Amino acid sequence: MDSKLATVLIVDDEKTNIDVLVGLLNDRYKTLVAKNGKQALKRATATPRPDIVLLDIMMPDMNGFEVCRRLKTDPSTMDIPVIYITGMDDPEDEKRGLQAGAVDFIRKPFSPNVVLARLETHLALQKQKARLIELNADKNRFLGMAAHDLRNPLNSICGLSDMLLNMELEQEEKHKFIGMINNVGNQMLTLINDLLDVSVIESGQFDLNLLLSNLSEVTASRINLIQFSADKKGITVNQSLADTPNFRFDPERMGQVIDNLLSNAIKFTPPDTTITVRTGVEGDRVFIQVVDQGLGIPDQERDKLFGAFQKLSTRPTAKERSTGLGLSIVKRIVDAHGGEISVENEPGQGACFTVSLSSEQENRSDHEQLHRNLSEKPRILLIDDDYALRFMYSKVCSDAGFEVVGEAEDGQEGVGLFHTLKPDIVLCDIEMPVLTGIDALKAILELDSGACVIMLTSVSDTAVWDECLLSGARYYVQKETPYVELAKKVKEAWLEHCRMLG
């Protein structure tokens, strides 16, 4: 509700009072007039519906108390704020009016400034109330969506794992079942991540981890990750990735943007066709474009495109699932970078999404020097109480050219190994027995204030991330990061650490 265009219903049997109020409010609000209680009830249910009512009490036939009572018992008008304008000053009358459902009293003779101030206050409160109702509806959709969209995948995982445990299966069948469990688990993780991202964004605690990165390289890596989905539909991904300068952005968040745009293009493009991905530079801006061959975006639905839980009339071509959250998250991430996102329908092709970010050129000789630092094979210490995760981290980092010099299963052991081994990089879990990750981080920094410690977390809580950074961690990485991306993130963190040390 926009208070500048709000509609005020004035109810009074005195023409002089009506004229004064209309003259006062006409420049700021739309005004409706009723000269008695019956007219007031009729006007309140008509179109346009008033946003607020200024109501006299002493009127013939039906007094203001009765008018207010009837407004508050009618579902179509019960949420309209009612303010009495009256010469009555008995506290019992005020009590009676509030019990009938009014929100405020203005005494006659009234001050124009008081009337305007009370109207602004209660219209603002009404706007906040409407927003809370909207947020509560979003929360209910959150819960409903989570319950509905997670139930079936969980049933699949339980059923398939039960068969693996209790049936004699050929190795090929086992491999197929494990692949299905992995696929369903990733679908669930995507949904949960989307819900958590929206929750973080709506909380106003949405922060970026800006690192020196290359948008074309990030795009290429994301295309590789999603290539399997494209291949399943017989979709060719045509890459036209021009060189782009290195500049500071959050590669993980922009990776989400690219993932969403690519997955949407695949969803809405028919099988055996092509999507095109471009990167390039225009002036001081770097852009990425994703062009599909679907039906495009209906003109009348463009305003809804980047809203949360919006599902347009255009449907995925192979009945793929959609949360209706992806583009809302994309828009907020791009906005947080100070960038722009636009969409156009390409004749005979489909939709073309363009993301544009402002870039700052980085000195290439400095960047190349930092890459040479990596050739010296940085030494890594792993601290995590989960053996399986340590095993995977170790393999991924070793395959990426790092040297894993030690592993610890709790924070206290990790601090001891750091003192003994003096590694270049520490990957440290947050929640561990004996000594938590935060406490281990502080102890490590007491031994070496310039240590490069990367915290590992499974939660999407910016308060936890902030605590890590404020305690002295250089960076943090979420555990659900795909393992093929983990080594790249560690490299990016190490490059940034080397750059900061000069």
Q: Please, could you describe this protein's structure?
A:
This protein has helices at 15-25, 37-45, 64-73, 91-100, 112-166, 171-203, 215-232, 251-268, 326-336, 364-374, 387-399, 411-421, 437-447, 462-470, 483-501, and strands at 7-11, 30-34, 52-55, 82-86, 104-107, 211-214, 236-241, 246-249, 274-282, 285-291, 340-346, 350-358, 379-383, 403-408, 425-429, 452-457, 475-478. It is an alpha/beta fold and 502 residues long. The chain has 4 domains: 3-110, 3-Layer(aba) Sandwich (Rossmann fold), CATH 3.40.50.2300; 141-203, Helix Hairpins (Orthogonal Bundle), CATH 1.10.287; 211-358, Histidine kinase-like ATPase, C-terminal domain (Heat Shock Protein 90, 2-Layer Sandwich), CATH 3.30.565; 366-501, Rossmann fold (3-Layer(aba) Sandwich). The strands form 4 sheets. Strands 2-1-3-4-5 form a 5-stranded parallel sheet, with helices on both faces. Strands 7-9-10-12-11 form a 5-stranded mixed sheet, covered by helices on one side. The two termini are 53 Å apart. The model is unreliable at 315-320 and 361-375 (pLDDT under 50).
In spatial order, strands of the major sheet run 2-1-3-4-5
Number of strands: 17
- Give the CATH architecture of the largest domain: 2-Layer Sandwich
Instruction: Tally the helices.
Output: 15
As a percent range, the share of helical residues equals 40-55%
Rounded mean pLDDT score = 82
- The whole-angstrom Rg is 31 Å
Largest sheet: 5 strands, parallel
Percentage of β-strand residues: 15-25%
